[in-house]
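Friendly challenge for the regulars: who can give me the structure tokens for this chain first? No prize, just bragging rights.
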Amino acid sequence: MLPVTLSFEVHQPHRLRIDGVKKDAGTLYGRYFDDEMNEHFFKDVAENCYFPATERLLREAKRREGDDRNLKVNFSVSTAWIEQAKKYHPELIDMLNQFPDNSIDFIGQAYQHSLAGLFNDKEEFRWQLNHHRQVVEDTFGVNPQVMTNTELIYHNEIGKISAEEGYKGIFTEGADRILGWRSPNHAYTQPDFVTENGNNVMLRNRKLTDDVGYRFSAEWWDEYPLTAEKYALWLSEAQGDMLNLFMDYETFGEHHWEGTGILWFLEALPEETLKHDNLEFAKVREVAQNNEPVGEFDAFEYNTVSWADQEMDASAWLGNPMQKMLFEKMQELEGKVKQLDDPEIKEVWRKFLTSDHLHHIATKTYDDGSVHNYFSYFDHPHQGFAVITEHLMDFQQQVEKRLRK
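First reply, four minutes later:
Bragging rights claimed.
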């Protein structure tokens, strides 16, 4: 029986004020972040994706409750999404809590979907992993046993830290430059020279995931149209110890609109998958605990892996001088922020670390550039750079002013 982990990244960032710092705002958060825009985007995506996709999965999970091979789904839900869901659509939290216990698992990640895992000093990253885990447990009553760093960003040290913080497994991209001839459908672990007590490195099957995430509505694709029946057949033909499908939840109804048939595909997928006697759905914790690693996944720091762009590295966030400068500034501010020990200051700083801000100012071209532009709310990367810089410099002044008191 081949276990299939069906996992979804669920995230919405706190967006910055495009029109500049609001100096008369009543809170430090309101000074920099635009809740009107946040509410607009969240409610729009909720209507197109979150409600219809979750309703279909929940209905199928309840229908199959008690079956030998039931539907199991896994959600990697960001802190930023949880905060906004509680504010704009708390019924989404209720829906996730209605899944039968044996049908749902939650995946840990960094607090506020941040880039702290790329900091030179990893203490903030450790704090974020544990704090987000507590947020998930408080919200959904589940203690995550498997984690993914933001956007599947991974190198050996990140894997080592995840094991030290108690995670049994960590997800990343099955990048060919690391795997070589090997399959992503097995568990791997950190090299011995990194740690002797590593955890399981679980790899996303990029091709099968992107057949849905990117190619589903592509009329140029030679497999178009993709049906649940055809896709389930491909899954049944896979070889290995596991098959990890990990995609953006907004694939269903937002990136591919309802008119493409994507929601019907999602609704039919469990039934078509379980028609194959060699397939079953699994929680990520089950796969992490039940599979011994078959080898090492050696991603050293200067060969960082992610699921972004063709390079599958950190260049989506640190690929140009604008991104690098702002990232260094965010990192430099840590000492002053921690010295103040002001909860409001620390929370705003952590929201600045959310990966989306730097993702929006990438200057890549061709297909990768189109992806960055699609997600960005800035007219141009350089506008984004100006906006982020203004907010970050003002934030630094506010921190330093409070330090002088």
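The chain has a mean pLDDT of 96. Residues 315-404 form one domain. Your move, everyone else.
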